[in-house]
Amino acid sequence: MSSTATHHVSEEAIYHKAEWHTHHHHEHNGHDHQDTFFSKYVFSQDHKMIAKQFLVTGIFWAIIGGLMSALFRIQLGYPDEHFGFLSSLLGHWAPGGKIDPQYYLALVTMHGTIMVFFVLTGGLSGTFSNFLIPLQVGARDMASPALNMLSYWMFVLSSVVMFSSYFVSSGPASAGWTVYPPLSALPEAVKGSGTGQGLWLISIALFIVSALLGGLNYVATILNMRTKGMTMTRLPLTIWSFLLTAILGILSFPVLLSAALLLIFDRSLGTSFYLNEIYINGHAMVEQTGGSSILFQHLFWFLGHPEVYIVILPAMGLVSEVLAVSARKPIFGYKAMIGSMLAIGGLSFIVWAHHMFVSGMNPFVGSIFVVLTLIIAVPSAVKVFNWIATIWRGSIRFTPQSLFAIGFVSLFISGGLTGLFLGNSTVDIELTKTYFVVAHFHIVMGVAAFFGLFAGVYHWYPKMFGRYMNNTLGYIHFFVTFIGSYLIFWPMHYQGMAGLPRWYYTHSSYETFGHMGELSKFISTVAVIVFLMQVFFIINFFYSMYKGRKVTEQNPWEATTLEWTTPIQAPHGNWEGDIPEVYRWPYDYSKENGEGFITQDTPMKPGEQQLHH
Amino acid sequence: MTTIIIVGIIILLISIVFQVAKTSEMVSTLKGAAQSRKDSNNILGILMLVFMPVFLIGCIWSAVHFHKDFLPESASVHGDWIDSVFNTTLIVTGLVFFLTQIALFWFAFRYREQEGKKALYYPENNKLEMWWTIIPAIFMTVLVVTGLFYWYKITAPAPKDAMVIEVTGKQFNWIARYPGKDGKLGHKNFTLINDNNVEGLDWNDEATKDDIIPTELHFVVGKPTKIIINSRDVMHNFDLPHFRVKLDAVPGIPTTFWFTPKYTTEEMRVRVGNPKFNFELACAQICGQSHYAMKMAVVVQTQAEFDAWIKDQKPYYETAMPAPAVAESVPAAEEKKDEAKKEEKK
Fold first, then answer.
1. How far away is chain B from the Cα of A223, in angstroms, using its nearest Cα?
2. Which of A174, A489, A523, B25 is the most buried (most CB within 10 A)?
3. Cβ contacts of B7 within 8 Å, gap of 6 or more
4. Per-residue pLDDT at A593
């Protein structure tokens, strides 16, 4: 980093300092400060409050999304039984206690949409990018606190629109979370493609606006507002992961927006970008021909694939940080970790068509995507080896967050390796669109990303709320979720190897697939239990906010990064006095002749060897 | 009543766990952070160690246990190639899986915080990074090369003598079409579709008149078979699990897949040891309400059996007549009218 840039940052910091001092003066005087309930908790511009808002909204959506999966797992596990509570919950969508086949598709679609976008993008990246970027780079707040607030409220607006689609008479979107046309374009094809799909598209468009406002803010803050001495190679890996996530989002979300817009045109303006030679509901659509539904797949996956890295990169960053802090050891291969994230981020843009090997695409094009897809496994492997090397000869302090971080690595290995089957087009012919795919992506980007999220929540909870979460509940939560997730998703590989297709309301109508019923029942039972057991996390999260053990030390985990140099209840503006200056990289744990850890704002001792500049 | 009891029990259990957790937190506060961490650290380290073999043995046991439920041996020639790439991948990934999982959980246990032991300050080793970049890269190259070798073989153009069958997906069944005696599939046009002409065959084309639309798919054993896959409405996916065949059915864009059946249905029944075994065609792409029931029976026969079967099938033209004369004219006329309107506007 050039010295002029650093100089600029420090000027910025001075300017901020003056401003924030006045602000705090007001607060301490009590009556005349300007924080009302609305400005503090609702329309807050404090990145820490916005982060908490994202987190609570994310938890709300995770409960809804999880509930959807519990409901459709009941159908899959017990296809011949009727449950009274289903009809009381879903009304005419579950006549006689049995879920309607179209509503089953709606549940699957909404589960995917909610989990991918609202929980693992909004909830994960939204929470931790907001919370940690200013705190860890040493900034008072985001580059634009107002846009940041707007980003959250666009997320809320998008959520409201999506949630409202549950209450339209034709039901929510039912064409799968990938909303491939023509199914998603034609209300005649499935009920959910009526108003429900329209709301889905509007909601996603709003979500994209939110993601872009957030992403631009994150990038601007990381690049321009680092404190003095915080060079790019002194950034914690969390910040690197948020930076790359934001860049991925900025470059790929607009493509989804365009795909969604064209779909809206096809649905309501009579265009035919995606429609061709369709005969439906007793008439041939002669006015709308010449389009290609494969075009939509290309556009969708051009976002869709980077999207899975948008989900998993922040989790990787959080896990790297938590592992280093817990193992009391520097993250192994800091620069290799950054390099592998850059490689993953770059490659994530040119592997999208591996979702389309059996779309009838030119086999040569397919083969290029095989090569690129398997290349992306290399930096992923490097990351795994580095995580394992990080805990090797460490001194691991087991906390709920370190358990979730270790669990993340285990899941990432398991789910990543099955990607090598699916990324190889030859094997993909057999396994694609089966439960093998469901198993693969749930382990590698669903559950793993959730584990990153949990690790982050347990680790930074004391910084967020000034109280600890209950450890015992955390341990129970971890073991139930970890073992439960493997019990749910591991057998799905076997169902996939038995050929069971996805999106099936029941498999019993086929001789070929019918014999897996017992296993489906087992999976469903565990899934419902694991879903219910998340109540321990929910209780722990909300109870500890008010009744948890109070944090009494400024740096409870003995970590090195800047957020632990702020007061326990960090004010708006984060530091009471000057923004600390940074003198070293963020992973000085157990350094020779040093203490257990050296915070980033500790000047180098004379003669001390410096690793990263 | 039972529901209330079950809900009651669940709530009771949750509150018990919650109270225990609260108490243990209080106890650990009394003991002090350092002491309580020491106590729990050992237990959690041991749990990590216990988890590892249970997990790994569970993986092996379950794979062996469910092996009988997997798809049987491939019923097509190229399916064996797919299975061989699958097995190669399984060996490579299996090796990495066991090594990394063992290392992860063993290190978690072995290097748990203990009194008098300090973590090693060991931030990087470029040589190591190089090696664990190169070795996976070599493995990936092996997988890519084996995979693509077969991929090109599978996706190569079908042999000239291949039997051609057209299969069209619609909500919610498949329509198969065999060329009649002339060996040619006649033209079709989606605007001609109606209840009596499910594919919209153009009766002006003589080649359509002997085309056969049976209710089952019949293949000939040992004979390369090329499927032209279409869709009439939304996307479907032509899925023959036993033959390791899967390809999207895209409206307006025909796709093709060719393969060679290896065993007749009878032979397959012997091989899988199930006298009731049947091949099935499924839909593998979400397509609406009855996606889960969009199946078609598939029979593999010897050439002689197939010839006898196809001889019994009537051309679709015979069953469709006399309706097509009306059906053909109505939409076509409408189209012309529309075109005329457009002309006028211009």
1. 25
2. A174
3. none
4. 66
